[in-house]
Amino acid sequence: MLQFIRRRDPAFLSRMEGVPDAAVSALAADRGVVLPGTYAEFLRRMGVSSNGYAPFGATQDHGFAAITERLADEGSVPPGRFFPVAIEKELADMLLAGLPGARRPAGPGNRG
Is the pTM of the predicted complex or chain greater than 0.90? Predict the structure, then answer.
Protein backbone atom coordinates (compact mmCIF):
# COMPACT_ATOMS: atom_id res chain seq x y z
CA MET A 1 0.00 0.00 0.00
CA LEU A 2 2.77 2.44 0.89
CA GLN A 3 4.51 1.79 -2.42
CA PHE A 4 1.26 2.60 -4.23
CA ILE A 5 0.88 5.87 -2.30
CA ARG A 6 4.55 6.75 -2.85
CA ARG A 7 4.11 6.34 -6.63
CA ARG A 8 0.82 8.25 -6.80
CA ASP A 9 1.48 11.10 -4.34
CA PRO A 10 4.91 11.14 -2.66
CA ALA A 11 4.15 14.28 -0.64
CA PHE A 12 1.13 12.55 0.89
CA LEU A 13 3.37 10.25 2.95
CA SER A 14 5.07 13.21 4.59
CA ARG A 15 1.71 14.34 5.99
CA MET A 16 1.09 11.03 7.79
CA GLU A 17 1.99 10.55 11.44
CA GLY A 18 3.01 7.25 12.95
CA VAL A 19 2.99 5.73 16.42
CA PRO A 20 6.34 5.38 18.24
CA ASP A 21 7.79 1.85 18.36
CA ALA A 22 7.62 1.84 22.17
CA ALA A 23 3.84 2.44 22.13
CA VAL A 24 3.24 -0.32 19.57
CA SER A 25 5.38 -2.76 21.58
CA ALA A 26 3.68 -1.81 24.86
CA LEU A 27 0.21 -2.36 23.44
CA ALA A 28 1.15 -5.77 22.04
CA ALA A 29 2.70 -6.80 25.36
CA ASP A 30 -0.31 -5.55 27.35
CA ARG A 31 -2.67 -7.56 25.12
CA GLY A 32 -0.45 -10.65 25.02
CA VAL A 33 -0.26 -10.66 21.22
CA VAL A 34 2.40 -10.63 18.56
CA LEU A 35 1.36 -8.12 15.94
CA PRO A 36 2.06 -9.07 12.33
CA GLY A 37 5.04 -7.13 11.02
CA THR A 38 3.02 -5.44 8.29
CA TYR A 39 0.46 -4.18 10.80
CA ALA A 40 3.14 -2.92 13.19
CA GLU A 41 4.74 -1.08 10.26
CA PHE A 42 1.33 0.35 9.31
CA LEU A 43 0.98 1.75 12.85
CA ARG A 44 4.50 3.19 12.73
CA ARG A 45 3.70 4.96 9.44
CA MET A 46 0.11 6.13 9.91
CA GLY A 47 -1.25 4.99 13.27
CA VAL A 48 -1.76 8.54 14.57
CA SER A 49 -2.84 10.19 11.32
CA SER A 50 -3.27 8.85 7.81
CA ASN A 51 -4.02 12.32 6.44
CA GLY A 52 -7.61 11.38 5.67
CA TYR A 53 -6.79 8.13 3.88
CA ALA A 54 -9.27 5.42 4.90
CA PRO A 55 -7.60 2.04 4.23
CA PHE A 56 -10.38 0.08 5.99
CA GLY A 57 -13.28 2.10 4.58
CA ALA A 58 -14.92 5.42 5.38
CA THR A 59 -16.81 4.06 8.40
CA GLN A 60 -13.74 2.61 10.13
CA ASP A 61 -11.32 4.46 12.43
CA HIS A 62 -7.90 2.80 12.30
CA GLY A 63 -6.24 5.35 14.59
CA PHE A 64 -4.11 3.97 17.40
CA ALA A 65 -5.89 6.13 19.99
CA ALA A 66 -9.34 4.81 18.99
CA ILE A 67 -8.15 1.21 19.11
CA THR A 68 -6.43 1.52 22.48
CA GLU A 69 -9.45 3.33 23.93
CA ARG A 70 -11.78 0.57 22.74
CA LEU A 71 -9.50 -2.14 24.08
CA ALA A 72 -9.44 -0.41 27.48
CA ASP A 73 -13.26 -0.35 27.49
CA GLU A 74 -13.62 -4.00 26.48
CA GLY A 75 -12.73 -5.91 29.63
CA SER A 76 -14.68 -8.87 28.30
CA VAL A 77 -12.28 -9.46 25.39
CA PRO A 78 -9.59 -11.89 26.54
CA PRO A 79 -6.04 -10.67 25.84
CA GLY A 80 -4.34 -12.56 23.04
CA ARG A 81 -7.60 -13.73 21.46
CA PHE A 82 -8.71 -10.63 19.58
CA PHE A 83 -7.06 -7.50 18.28
CA PRO A 84 -8.98 -4.98 16.19
CA VAL A 85 -7.21 -3.08 13.42
CA ALA A 86 -10.09 -0.63 12.94
CA ILE A 87 -13.12 0.51 14.95
CA GLU A 88 -16.55 1.39 13.57
CA LYS A 89 -16.94 5.17 13.77
CA GLU A 90 -19.76 6.71 15.76
CA LEU A 91 -22.82 7.56 13.67
CA ALA A 92 -22.65 11.22 14.73
CA ASP A 93 -19.07 11.50 13.43
CA MET A 94 -20.06 9.97 10.10
CA LEU A 95 -23.05 12.29 9.76
CA LEU A 96 -20.95 15.37 10.50
CA ALA A 97 -18.39 14.30 7.93
CA GLY A 98 -21.15 14.04 5.33
CA LEU A 99 -22.64 17.50 5.93
CA PRO A 100 -22.58 19.96 3.03
CA GLY A 101 -19.45 22.05 3.29
CA ALA A 102 -17.56 19.42 5.26
CA ARG A 103 -14.48 18.27 3.38
CA ARG A 104 -12.40 15.15 3.65
CA PRO A 105 -8.69 15.67 3.09
CA ALA A 106 -7.67 14.62 -0.40
CA GLY A 107 -5.44 11.60 -0.75
CA PRO A 108 -4.96 8.43 -2.76
CA GLY A 109 -8.42 6.89 -3.01
CA ASN A 110 -10.03 9.94 -1.33
CA ARG A 111 -10.04 12.52 -4.09
CA GLY A 112 -11.96 15.49 -2.86
Answer: no
